[in-house]
Amino acid sequence: MFVSTEGPILHADLDAFYASVEQRDDPRLRGRPVIVGGGVVLAASYEAKRLGVRTAMGGAQALRLCPHAVVVPPRMAAYSAASKAVFEVFRDTTPIVEGLSIDEAFLDVGGLRRIAGSPSEIARRLRAEVLARVGLPITVGVARTKFLAKVASAVAKPDGLLVVPPDGELEFLHPLPVERLWGVGKVTSEKLRSRGIRTVRQVAELPEVDLVSMLGRGAGHHLHALSRGLDPRPVQVGRRRRSMGSQRALGRRRRSMAELDELLVSIVDRLARRLRSASRLTRTVVLRMRFADFTRATRSRTMVEATDHTETLLAAARKLLVEAQSLVYDRGLTLLGISFSNLTPHGSVQLMLPFEIEDGVAVDSAVDGIRDRFGSAAITRGSLLGHEPGMSVPLLPD
């Protein structure tokens, strides 16, 4: 009986996705540092990243680091089309695909050896196919677990392929910095490093009780397992997103509450349409804010009944913004976002009495129909007339 020497899981991750699409579509940008987004960096090409430009960095700071960068506005329709084309390649490779975001996914190819070869051979063909069919570079990590496959792709970037053999997992993982562990962000990293813990090996050498005492039960148990290469999660086909959202970078200029309300209306209007297009309902509206000192805050409201009704969702979002007004003025708002969570499929919710359909639902349906037929700009709210539409940026699924 043949036993594979390679893990069955691939993590495929497009390289500097937004910037790569811009370089693909405009040959003049190839080989040059490219920044997508003006007020805040949404994406940067590797030519810009090598000079220190990072996603979510302020545009002015990015240009100080990389003064010769070409700054381009985002084209969300182009990125969405490219993502769909890449996911077609994924699904042509294996039916077991779990999308993580617009530009990355896990693929399980464990059952394809007899017809398609080893996981590394499949990964090589996948990379070549994405480049040939979509024109974009993609990095793939191959491993026994999802966590190790994701770490492998991160280490192999850009435009690379890395296989972690099952008998060499800890040899690969333990020398890496603690930030490579899934779930270690800035705060957790600072806690670990303040105690002299800098590598994954040092995390693995700690007793679990010490990690729990330091980081809490959930995080401590999670990192204790990952540092030892333990991750039993399978690739989940058809995994439904738990939230959807959009956000708008505002730059440093102070905005009045009236201006912020206009932005809020634009974001909620567009997001509610996406919610209905996906046949989903939401119970929780989340207001996301980032401030001039780069700190963040969120406010949320959970409704009694799940809905996709624009006016209901807008009323909840407006209430959250009003409640956060003091934060907005005191700390200087630089990013405003809305997300919907607690999503459920349309039709799976027990309706509350009485059963009459609200007039607003019919209005939403009519507006969606007009936009579907004639384009999203064919009809808009009177309060938004004469204003430039806000640049909404899809948030990654949780």
Automatic annotation (TrEMBL):
Annotated site (Substrate discrimination): Y18
UniProt subcellular location: Cytoplasm
Active site, renumbered: E104
Domain of life: Bacteria
Any Pfam family hit: IMS
One Gene Ontology cellular component annotation held by this UniProt entry: cytosol
Keyword vocabulary terms for this entry: Cytoplasm, DNA damage, DNA repair, DNA replication, DNA-binding, DNA-directed DNA polymerase, Magnesium, Metal-binding, Mutator protein, Nucleotidyltransferase, Transferase
Class of this enzyme: transferase
UniProt: Mg(2+) binding residues: D13, D103
UniProt GO molecular function: damaged DNA binding; DNA-directed DNA polymerase activity; magnesium ion binding
Subunit structure: Monomer.
Similarity comment text for this entry: Belongs to the DNA polymerase type-Y family.
Function: Poorly processive, error-prone DNA polymerase involved in untargeted mutagenesis. Copies undamaged DNA at stalled replication forks, which arise in vivo from mismatched or misaligned primer ends. These misaligned primers can be extended by PolIV. Exhibits no 3'-5' exonuclease (proofreading) activity. May be involved in translesional synthesis, in conjunction with the beta clamp from PolIII.
Protein name, as recorded: DNA polymerase IV
Annotated source species: Amycolatopsis carbonis
Source organism phylogeny: Bacteria, Bacillati, Actinomycetota, Actinomycetes, Pseudonocardiales
The gene coding this protein: dinB
